[in-house]
Automatic annotation (TrEMBL):
Protein name, UniProt field: ORF0 protein
Biased composition (Acidic residues): 223-244
Basic and acidic residues composition bias: residue spans: 245-254
Residue ranges, annotated region (Disordered): 212-254
Origin organism lineage: Eukaryota, Viridiplantae, Streptophyta, Embryophyta, Tracheophyta
Gene name in the database record: orf0
Amino acid sequence: MPRHSPRNLIEVLGFVRELRLMAFEVGYEVAPEYRQIPHDPDKEKCRVRVTLASDSEDLPSFKFEAGGRSYCHACQEAALVAIGELRQHFEEELDSSAFQYHPHKPHGQDYGTYTCPDGEESATLMHAVHMLSAMDAVVVERDKAAHDRENWNRGKICKLKSKVYRLQKELAELKGRTPLPTSKLRLTPRKRTCPPPRLQLASKIRVMGEAVPDHAEPVIDIISDEEEEEDPEEREPATPEEEDTSLRPDARRK
């Protein structure tokens, strides 16, 4: 992927536009600058750092980073991170602005926190905020489900490799050969670790729903020479419809 020179992305919409307008609202005089930075190609295709620069002592400068599947996607992800942290840092300034319903999302937090719109005269605005909050939570759960499935697939691959080694070992013994030694196969699921928040500010807003904390994921150890036969009843992680019988088609017809 060709490297992109630093840009302000004045004509780009989406989160990039919202961040630019929010930055002007709190006092920044220059639009945020997006710069492509080195990244790990095994984890992401592009990584971007967005910088909010200030010469004033009362207005701090910020830098936020995010990765994505392309340069444009990484810019939008970085802008979204910056929006959540600016909303948290400039809470008092933005509470009385047009950005009061943008989510608070400190660094390292999965769920955005939205100001409760109860009391607004516009029913459309109330529904829009509740919809955004619900969509945010669903996206987080979708990402966690994809992460769980990735760990499940990695476990299956490790079991298959162990089974292949066992068959090769048995074949070598039948032919009177000494099987080659192999190292212990150990699979540790990738954990969704989050760095500590950069900002330590007490929340003064009403929270719409509570975030479900992540639980530590188990470590799966698979020993190649002690692997048991794969259980034919073993299945992939259940979907919400499989876990909740009320969501099944046959249950709805009753």
